[in-house]
Amino acid sequence: MEKRSSFSGKIGFIMAAAGSAVGLGNIWRFPYLAAQYGGGIFLLVYIVLAVTFGFALMTAEIAIGRKTGLSAVEAYGKLHKKWKFLGYLAAIVPIIILPYYSVIGGWVAKYMWAFMSGDAADTAGNIVTSAGAEVSYFESFIAGVGEPIGWFALFLGFTAVVVLFGVEKGIEKVSKIMMPVLIVLSVLIAGYALCMDGAMEGLKYYIVPNFSHFSVKTVLAAMGQLFYSMSLAMGIMITYGSYMKKKDSIESSVRHIEIFDTGIAFLAGLMIIPAIFAVGDPETQLTKGPGLMFIVLPKVFEAMPAGEIVGAAFFVMVLFAALTSSISLMETIVSLFMDKFKMGRKTACVVVIGICILLGLPSSLGNGPLASVKIMGLAFLDFFDFISNSVLMPIVALFTCIFVGYVIKTKTVVDEVEIHNCKFKSKGLFTIVIKYFAPICIVLILATSIVDIIYTLTTGSSWL
Ligand code: PHE
């Protein structure tokens, strides 16, 4: 077998995995979920899940990858013939995510352009439609046809060019500079937002858990977000693990990636949630969903000195973070198609682009001309997001726990982590989470939400 090239040292591995992990999930998705699902209580549940589920699953995936030296589909099959299906199941997730990820990536590109071309002030205001109604700049933008589709195509096209010509290395180099800049800018913006009138109320909402806001939906949303944000339950960390050197510590790498990923998500929440209380009416905006960042941040930049420049720089960084993630998503699908269907890179890319257009177009149009079309009460984009994060990923995670806990046994992973006398400090926690805590929680949450879906479909309202 051809020898796999490996990352140059632990830092190289952490940076590459963090490049995949840190993306729109942290900056766009985390804040709107935290806002919607009770603020502090969501944050608390998320952190508890991150140090238990997140830690155990990421360790297991990276260890499986490094042990086998293979990507997900092959890795599960190699460890146990009958478990190859899990690799395929995991591979469906990025195929569902990438199309709508590119739609949101397009929105970021559009905002970056608006800020760069001097239209920053417009993005914070309202627009009067031809029918005479007043809507926010964001709502008027996403309700369009040509513009959002154009930006979606641009984002997708750029991702494809990078994957097609295999120039990920160049992008990774640039993102090594971009990532620290993103952090510095986020601290600056969050600091400014926190000083705005009324922001303290929002800060309280974001960091102080209010247990009366707790519901099963909070846990389901936090769990899906955890998988999404850390690129878990879709085979990606297995691939990254397959490139990791035997002498590097898996445990400490996982800790670093987790802290990095959660830190950036927390910062994004700090930029956006307190600001909701300062610039708008929290009543309606807390539940704004996917548009939250695009509605609130322009208002913060409008109030901020040199906000136009800070805003432009911010959207450039976010775009880069989104691109490193979309590239990692597309690369995963392309290499799977190349291996499985014996396609050349070019053909595989073309097929993947085709799938993305097919699934991405309805996600984009679902905010405009197709707004009345709902699947299970959800617009296309929300539907794809729901299927991947709240259904498929928990199922893949559940199977992964059963596989590691009861088929290959936790010892297989523990031995891989402890290779070269590396001590696995959280061995006990890992074993308990994989064998009992995670599977039981996932089954309970999935069962509750399935009952809820059936209830909602029959009665028209949720019981959770
Ligand atoms: N983790 C990325 C994010 O937070 C999304 C992603 C998922 C990227 C899976 C690659 C693979 O945006």
What can you tell me about this protein's structure?
The chain is mainly alpha-helical and 464 residues long. The protein has a single domain (10-370), classed as Hydantoin permease (Orthogonal Bundle). Helix content is 76%, strand content 1%. It is built from 20 helices and two strands. Strands 1-2 form a two-stranded antiparallel sheet. A hairpin with a 5-residue loop joins strand 1 and strand 2. Helix 9 (168-194) packs across helix 13. It is globular. Bound molecules: phenylalanine (PHE). Phenylalanine is lined by residues 20-21, 23-26, 94, 228-229, 231, 234, 236, 325, 328-329.
Bound molecules: phenylalanine
CATH superfamily: Hydantoin permease
Question: Which percent bin holds the helix content?
Answer: over 70%
Overall pLDDT score: 90
Q: What's the total number of strands?
A: 2
* Overall 3D form: globular
At the first level of CATH, the class is: Mainly Alpha
The radius of gyration is 21 Å
Determine the strand fraction and express it as a percent band.
Answer: under 5%
In short:
Helices cover 76% and strands 1% of the residues.
Task: Give the SSE map.
Blueprint: H1 9-21, H2 24-36, H3 40-68, H4 72-79, H5 84-116, H6 120-123, E1 126-128, E2 134-136, H7 137-142, H8 146-164, H9 168-194, H10 199-207, H11 216-229, H12 236-242, H13 250-279, H14 282-285, H15 292-303, H16 307-340, H17 345-365, H18 380-407, H19 409-417, H20 427-459
Antiparallel strand pairs: 1-2
Helix pairs in contact: 1-13, 2-11, 2-13, 3-10, 3-11, 3-12, 3-13, 3-19, 3-20, 4-5, 5-8, 5-16, 5-17, 5-18, 8-16, 8-17, 9-13, 9-16, 10-13, 11-18, 11-20, 13-15, 15-16, 16-17, 17-18, 18-19, 18-20
The site of phenylalanine has 15 residues, from helix 1, helix 2, helix 11 and helix 16.
